[in-house]
Amino acid sequence: MSFFDNIQSAAARDEEVELFDILGSGYYAYLETGERLDIQRAFNFQPRIDDFNDYYSVMFAETPSAFFVFRQRVTEGKAAPWRAFLEIKTRRPSVFYAQACSLACRLRELYGRPRDAAPPG
């Protein structure tokens, strides 16, 4: 089953992450809506940067109920708060995280590392 075939549903989200927190052995994201996401594992992914004055960083996180994509906009060297961007429900959660990691690595191979080019100016 491919990465895209494994997606059961995907819903757009747009909530600010007020806090990422580590308590004991848990890692949590608290959204502005009051929702707490119990993060089981996560990885950051930096898409290719074409404009160093305006770009996004991306985080992919697995929770017990779904997978979440967070993104953070960086403009003129200043990072905005992280925002929940996408919620993904899967058919086979046990393999989806590995599929996402593999896809992120493949994108890096195809498009190069984000900092290969020198920043402007």
How large is the count of helical segments? 1
- The share of residues in extended strands comes to over 45%
- Overall tally of structural domains: 1
Q: How many angstroms separate the termini?
A: 45 Å
C-alpha-based Rg, rounded: 15 Å
Average residue-wise pLDDT: 84
Total strands:
8
**SSE pattern, N- to C-terminal:** EEEEEEEEH
Give the % helix: 10-25%
Structural class given helices, strands, pairing? alpha+beta
Care to describe what's here?
The model is unreliable at 113-121 (pLDDT under 50). The protein is α+β, with helices and mostly antiparallel strands and 121 residues long. Strands 1, 2, 3, 4, 5, 6, 7 and 8 form an 8-stranded antiparallel beta sheet that branches. The chain has one domain. It starts with 6 loop residues before the first strand and ends in a 10-residue tail after the last helix. The protein has one helix at residues 93-111, and strands at residues 7-23, 26-31, 36-39, 41-45, 54-62, 67-75, 78-79, 83-90. The protein is globular. The protein is built from 1 helix and 8 strands, in the order E-E-E-E-E-E-E-E-H.
